[in-house]
Amino acid sequence: MTATTPRNTIAGDQLWDGDGRMWTRRHSAWLSAEEADRWVERGQPIVLRRYDEGPVRWLDGERAAAWWQAVKAHVEAPGRGAPSEPDDEGRTWGVHVWRCGSERRLGVTAFC
After folding, report:
1. How many domains does the chain have?
2. Which tens digits make up the pLDDT trace of 67-96?
3. Quick one: 14 exposed, middle or buried, by C-beta within 10 A (0-12, 13-18, 19+)?
């Protein structure tokens, strides 16, 4: 049996994309919604993790911007202010920056 490279999955502070490249969020602090807004405005892709949906999803362009507009009011940065109000599904969201070499991606994770 041969080992395969994980794809579109997260384990701890590591993320493997669809090409099998490993990203890290080690040393990445929680971002506020305002900080994350700047990333989305620059057209940065979003890596979305919802624990009940299986593999991570990659959103970019207009799709990422539209999704972000719907959830940014529900973003919280633990240890950096008051918790946000949950969305219609009872979730709040946390934001990190994932790094792979010189590349950066905005990672958004659902909190329960």
Report:
1. 1
2. 999 999 999 998 887 788 999 999 999 999
3. middle
